Amino acid sequence: MLRKSRAASILTLLLVLTCSGAAWAIDYIAEGENNYGACASPCNQNSFNAYNVATVTGFTGSMAYWGYGGVLYTESQLGGADLVEDTLPGGEDRMFGDAHTILALATHGGIVQENGNGPYRHYVIMCMTGGADDCRPNTYASSTVAMRLGERCGQFATPYRGWTRWVTLVTCHSIETNPWQQWEMTTTDGLEYIMGFQGLFYNSPSTDDQLSSWANGAFGLTWPFAASWFNAVDDYFWNNVGGVAVPGSDGADAMIRYANQTYLYGTRPVCGSTNYFAVAYHQG
Amino acid sequence: MKSISVMSSLAFLLLAGTGCSSRGDAVGSTERVSTGGSSASRLVGTSFEKDGPTAAWAAALAMKATPPGVSAAVQFPVYRLGVPQDPVLRMAQRSAALGISPSKSSSYGSALTRSDGDFDLVIDSKNEMEVWVNRARHHSGTVADVGTLKSEGEYLSLASQYVAQKIDSPAGLTLHPYKFWKYYHELWAAPGVREEQRAYEVVVIFNSYIGEVPVVGSGGKVAVYMGLGGDVVSHTSYLRGPRSQVGTASLASLLSTQEAEARAITQLSARGMDPTRFTVTRREFGYWVTGRMGAQKYLAPHYVFAFTPTREGESGVGEHVLAVSDPALVKLLSEDDQIEAEQAALMLKGAPAPSMK
Question: B179-191 in b/e burial notation, b at 16+ Cβ within 10 A?
Fold first, then answer.
């Protein structure tokens, strides 16, 4: 099974830090999966998708245009461990999913009740399987494949802190009807902004530019993330419902961050203080 | 279908003579035709149609018939689209119409942008897609905008006025109220309690028709975003009108809905997906206009099918199928398939998105 090179990842990061001037502090990891059939079981049980890879490659093109670098992984290079907290056995997020400012992911995803009757959590489908490299990393409170992103303090920040500040999730159900349950564990100590979709997401040849369009608005025009996200994903024909979830220390903090977050906005100043989520979406 | 009321004086707004006809000196304007009987688009209708008319067409064509109210003798002209206006000239004209001063201009790919304080105007030179944004207000109203939600009819009236005054609509199109969305924000606290839910912005979306046939696809739309008070905070316009007729398809010559669905299933398989893992949940018919990346050359009738996965956690897929069967027209229209394939290949190579919305 092809596995990405850690050295290549580090080299890319160094190039980003060296070459991109004022943009040095922002970089990304983009991951997209089309051919689940080529993954190990049980990841291979998922249906082929014709658009996820183009979604993330288009994103990398736009980010490169605006002067930002990062790493791109597709198909069999996606591993569940990429998103699994590195303090868990087998977790490798310090090198991949939690090693960059932006995590841009295009894959299948869903909601599931933790332990069958607990809170509703989110999961995404990756490619590899086995141990912590499970193909369904999730946002459970307790899991061997739990996602914890951007942690700058707390139990998961030692020995390796996380660096992710913003995530764009082109997956089904990434911002569902109880965002607190979905994202409370993953955002506790750092992650600042989650952009995704409510319910089922429909792909078509006219939807695979959505991540690149978000990048154009957010980094080319300095639009606030929310405005850029909704402008990118509002597709009047396919009825996809974009959503945004933003943690905050209190309601006002969450709402201000929701409305004002641009790529120039400062990091969340306080660790361990996700007491509220501001959420936005449309109905109709 | 939801029905709403709107002031009758706004129900038939004619855009001609409102300042929206500045395209008179545009490249190719002399070749434009009008299927709507007006020199510019007309705005008609008093209720949001949603997918009703396009679904009605698909249902009728399953029996090679027309929907109620449409003559059985209907023809389906195939058009070449108008040539996009010179982008610099168009930016100048549209900036003037929207009150944007040329304080800061930039471009990348096929997109031109002009910024003036909080206002941004983006125009795609290859297809004239236009986005105007008040960045201080668009999706920022969750903090500042405390107001009362008006009725759908009131927002439709306000959006209709705005379209009449501000949107440049090509001849040959008719605009119909399509969808109405309300944007909400919520505040959630531990242990998963929603403490607040409040609307903060709305959008009225119009769909275009060519003659009696609506457009299907992500393009051919105008969306007017408003704060709760009705002040417009953004608009997106993607309207391209027919320039010249290149052929005609008769009702009898069109593929039936069933024939088209069989082709859509074949297309789905060709993309690598297993059709048995999906069910078709939407069947629609109309003139196909692709999304913002689109650089298509022709307007032709198509079917569109939504494939919904049968397994939880997987994505849906949309497929469009040309409804025309005449071999000469099919060959001509394959140019658009080639353009779409080239754009998809560019995206896979990591080329910057050619448009900016």
Answer: bbbbbbbbbbbee
Give dist(CA A61, CA B353) in Å, integer: 7
* Least Cα separation, residue A232 to chain B (angstroms): 6
The structural domains of chain B, with segments of one domain joined by +, span: 28-53+84-185+196-241, 245-348
A251 touches chain B (CB under 8 A): yes
R_g of chain A computed on alpha carbons: 17
This model of the complex carries an ipTM of 0.92
Q: How confident is the model over B273-280, as a mean pLDDT?
A: 96
pTM for the full predicted model: 0.90
DSSP string for A131-158: GGG-S--B--SS-TTB---S--SSGGGS
pLDDT at A3: 54
Residue A3 in any domain: the answer is no
Report the alpha-carbon distance of residue B247 to residue B78 in Å, rounded.
Answer: 5
Percentage of chain B surpassing pLDDT 70? 85
The CATH number for A20's domain is 3.40.50
Q: Does B116 touch chain A (CB under 8 A)?
A: no
- Give yes or no for residue A127 having a pLDDT over 50: yes
Diameter of chain B measured on Cα atoms: 64
Is the CB of A205 less than 8 angstroms away from the CB of B133? Answer: no
Q: Identify the burial level of A215 via C-beta atoms within 10 angstroms of its C-beta, where 0-12 means exposed, 13-18 middle and 19 or more buried.
A: buried
CA distance A186 to A164: 11
pLDDT in tens, B27-53: 233 233 333 334 467 899 999 999 999
